[in-house]
């Protein structure tokens, strides 16, 4: 019995349509520290650590938060999953092999960067490394997989 957990090929286009603008808007908001006030809401929180003189901590409650980062993060993750794990037009065993090798390579590469970061990056800068690390496994996989597929198409073109 062969199990296939890939999305249909049509989802890849939807993923790209969401991923590219979300990533661009995310980078722009990160660089310029932009948080529009119309996205300020009281949102539920599981653990609240209020930065005050009393060091008050609360297990459940609400906090005032700008939800732009959460929206963009969710859009980037969902669209990256759609791009990364949608079938190709022709999904054969060799494509599956490339997919698996790219995933393994992306995990190794990502954790290599993380080990490097543990050794050389500290304090608040390390928090930024961890935030980016949430997205980089999928992004490294997408880059390597598409690069390998394009190499395959170029070699098939030259054989003809």
What does this structure look like?
- This protein folds into two domains: 1-87, no CATH class; 88-160.
- The protein is built from four helices and four strands, in the order H-E-E-E-E-H-H-H.
- The mean pLDDT is 90.
- Helix 3 packs antiparallel against helix 4 (123-159).
- It is 66% helix and 10% strand.
- It has 160 residues and is mainly alpha-helical.
- The protein is elongated and about 70 Å long.
- A two-stranded antiparallel sheet has the order 1-4.
- Please identify the structural class as seen in this structure: mainly alpha
The outline comes out as elongated
Report the sheet with the most strands, covering strand number, pairing sense and barrel closure. Answer: 2 strands, antiparallel
Rg, please?
20 Å
Q: What average pLDDT do the residues reach?
A: 90
Compute the number of strand runs.
4
Core attributes:
single chain; 160 residues; mainly alpha; 2 domains; two-stranded antiparallel ribbon; 4 helices; 4 strands; elongated
Which helices and strands occur, and which strands form pairs?
Elements: H1 10-32, E1 40-45, E2 48-49, E3 57-58, E4 61-66, H2 68-84, H3 93-120, H4 123-159
Antiparallel strand pairs: 1-4, 2-3
Short description:
This protein is mainly alpha-helical and 160 residues long.
